[in-house]
Amino acid sequence: MPAGSIRARVRAEMIEEIKATARRHLAAEGANLSLRAVARDMGMVSSALYRYFASRDDLLTALIMDAYDALGDAVETADARVADRDDLLGRWLAAGHAIRDWALANPAEYALLFGSPVPGYAAPTDTVRAAARTPAVLVGIAADGVRAGTLAEHDPDDLPEQVRADATAIAASFSPDVPPAALTAAMLAWMSLFGAVSFELFGQLNNTVYARRELFGHHLRRLAGHLGLPAGDHPKGRTPDSPKTRNRR
User: Fold this and answer.
1) Taking 70 as the threshold, does the pLDDT of residue 239 lie above it?
2) Is 236 part of a structural domain of the chain?
3) Does residue 244 fall inside a structural domain?
4) For position 50, which CATH number holds?
């Protein structure tokens, strides 16, 4: 193997080890990462770490992009597993539960993406592509409903003028097939979905709600109605990616 290839492989492995160590710090201490602490855990001097990440912000950006891509993988996979592509409700339920499942399995990464902003950190535009993968699944479901004529129509006059202007601009650049009113409904459903996940993940349901998966599934169905998805024949409490034997949380 050429020396250059060996060096590239070793560098890639070192970068992955640095990120794995940083994720352990995220889980224990939150997003206020210290390169010095990461280097110490790896048995390195902090100056050696700068050969791989020029700053704390560069390391945070790498972790953020990995997390967005991991979430995107989970949601895209859940959507793709619904064999009947016309089953818009089933796809929405599968995608929604995939988000919750990923968040519960990766709470530190979820908090990095959707929790309190990291002081002094501004995400670069590099993160936009990865961040767009998950909402693109929902918009894709809505767009398929528009093309099939099965998505309920939304009254465009119901939108405030400024909201309509924003939605029109977003639709033009992101999904021209989806009318602004339907795109707004999708945005509101997405916001509410993530609000429910955050409410649970950050402890707001503790000692109050125990049937959390069932409550979340009920919430998803309500949001599906708001979005205008056609009603399906999925039994309540079941989703296309959730067999009866699946462990509940």
Assistant:
1) no
2) no
3) no
4) 1.10.10
The number of distinct structural domains making up the chain is 2
Q: What is the distance between the alpha carbons of residues 92 and 138, in angstroms, rounded to a whole number?
A: 7
Query: φ, ψ for residue 10 (rounded to 5)?
Result: -65, -40
Q: What is the pLDDT of residues 92-106, one digit of tens each?
A: 999 999 999 999 999
- Based on the number of CB atoms within 10 Å of its own CB, is 141 exposed (0-12), middle (13-18) or buried (19 or more)? buried
Closest-CA residue to 69 (of 31, 24, 102): 102
Question: 206 exposed, middle or buried (CB, 10 Å; 0-12, 13-18, 19+)?
Answer: exposed
Is residue 96 domain-shared with residue 31, that is, in the same domain? no
pLDDT at 246 over 80: no
Residue 34 has pLDDT above 90, yes or no: no
Pick left, alpha or beta for residue 202 (phi over 0 → left; psi -120 to 50 → alpha; otherwise beta): alpha
- Whether residues 6 and 29 share a domain: the answer is yes
Domain holding 20, by residue range, is 1-54
Q: Which of 31-45, 83-97, 214-228 bottoms out in mean pLDDT, i.e. has the lowest?
A: 31-45
Q: Is residue 247 in a domain?
A: no
Q: Which residues of 161-174 are buried (b: 16+ CB within 10 A; e: fewer)?
A: eeebeebbebbeee
Span 107-160, pLDDT tens digits: 999 999 999 888 888 889 889 999 999 999 999 999 999 999 999 888 888 889
- 67 with 18, same domain: the answer is no
Residue among 107, 105, 81 at smallest CA distance from 94: 81
